[in-house]
């Protein structure tokens, strides 16, 4: 393919990554995953960027793993070239918040990619699902683990065992997505929220994201302990001093991200 599989642009302190394989409904292939990861890592290292938006197009956020590419794989092939696992492992290591702006289909690996994001905004026409069972496989990039955490066991089983899809209204009602909008507003509103997040102290934002994510890894006692340590360490930041001073002086804080 001559076209880049992703497009990137910046608006203020926000990096925007658009999946760009429209003819394949943005199906995830090895090249796209490589380019997506490179872009995420580059934004994560860029101190001008405070948050990232990942989106697709109006027809599809992403219709899943590339079925044509996956068809060639046997067990050893799947084991050795599990780039969706690489994506999953790498996204977990990104410090900056990632907002998924979802219009159209988010199926299979596409739904899993969406669930790797920290906040999901969806258009009213968005459709979520884990249809792998219809292909003779199961979700392989977090679907069985993240969907249950997002929407609970009964709904997750209902979707994964039948392959049925969920429209955005149900996705919002069940907690999979944070907010829904008219389709043409989804990306704009995601960028606005990303800009809001990017306007705060970068180290504090990273601490908040890390603490929330640990809630899914640790029991309550250890999670509360982890939160306390990060909370206490925020008192060592210049931005903490500035935030409290600014409040008491009734002015806007000027973050130095230190
Ligand atoms: C490769 C795909 C694709 C996919 C669609 N296309 N999804 N190519 N991988 N996942 C291609 C089609 O082959 C077609 O190409 C073009 O995109 C347009 O799709 P259509 O089917 O013609 O569009 P439409 O009729 O509107 O139907 C849309 C759709 C359907 C309902 C989303 O495309 C669909 O069911 N796609 C598969 C969804 C799916 O099963 N995803 C899970 C994949 S498995 P041509 O060349 O014909 O124009 C997975 C495993 C994850 O994700 C586990 C990770 C380890």
What does this structure look like?
It holds the Pfam family ECH_1. There is one protein chain. The chain is an alpha/beta fold. About 45% of the residues lie in helices and about 15% in strands. It has helices at about 30-45, 65-70, 75-80, 85-90, 110-115, 145-150, 155-160, 170-175, 185-200, 200-215, 220-235, 240-250; strands at about 5-10, 15-20, 50-55, 60, 100, 105, 120-125, 125-130, 165, 180. The strands form two sheets. Strands 1-2-3-5-7-10 form a six-stranded mixed beta sheet, sandwiched between helices. A four-stranded mixed beta sheet has the order 4-6-8-9. A hairpin with a 2-residue loop joins strand 1 (about 5-10) and strand 2. It starts with 5 loop residues before the first strand and ends in a 10-residue tail after the last helix. The mean pLDDT is about 95. The structure holds hexanoyl-coenzyme A (HXC). Hexanoyl-coenzyme A binds next to helix 2 and strand 6.
Give the amount of beta strand, in percent: 15-25%
Q: What structural class results from the helix and strand content?
A: alpha/beta
Q: Using DSSP, what is the number of strands?
A: 10
Helix content: 40-55%
Taking Cα atoms only, what radius of gyration do you get, to the nearest Å?
19 Å
Mean pLDDT: 96
Order of helices and strands: EEHEEHHHEEHEEHHEHEHHHH
GO biological process, one term: fatty acid beta-oxidation
Keywords: Fatty acid metabolism, Lipid metabolism, Lyase
GO cellular component, one term: mitochondrion
Protein name: Probable enoyl-CoA hydratase, mitochondrial
């Amino acid at each position: 393919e001559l076209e880049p599989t992703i497009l990137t642009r910046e608006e203020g302190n926000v990096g925007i990554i658009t999946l760009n394989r429209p003819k394949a409904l943005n199906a995830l292939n090895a090249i796209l995953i490589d380019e997506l990861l490179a872009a995420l890592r580059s934004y994560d290292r860029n101190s001008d960027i405070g948050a990232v938006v990942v989106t697709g197009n109006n027809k599809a956020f992403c219709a899943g793993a590339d079925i044509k590419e996956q068809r060639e794989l046997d067990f050893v092939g799947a084991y050795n070239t599990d780039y969706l696992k690489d994506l999953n492992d790498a996204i977990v290591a990104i410090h900056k918040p990632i907002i998924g702006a979802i219009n159209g289909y988010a199926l299979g690996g596409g739904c899993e990619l969406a669930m790797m994001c920290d906040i999901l905004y969806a258009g009213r026409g968005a459709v979520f699902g884990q249809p792998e069972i219809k292909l003779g496989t199961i979700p392989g990039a977090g679907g069985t683990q993240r969907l249950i955490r997002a929407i609970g066991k009964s709904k997750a089983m209902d979707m994964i065992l039948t392959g049925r899809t969920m429209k955005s209204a149900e996705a919002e009602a069940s907690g999979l997505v944070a907010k829904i909008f008219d389709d043409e507003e989804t990306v704009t509103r995601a960028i606005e929220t990303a800009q809001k997040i990017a306007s705060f102290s970068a180290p504090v934002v990273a601490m908040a994201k890390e603490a929330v994510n640990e809630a899914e890894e640790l029991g309550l006692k250890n999670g509360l302990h982890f939160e306390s340590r990060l909370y206490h360490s925020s008192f060592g930041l210049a931005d903490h001093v500035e935030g409290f001073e600014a409040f008491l002086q009734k002015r806007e804080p000027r973050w130095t991200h230190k």
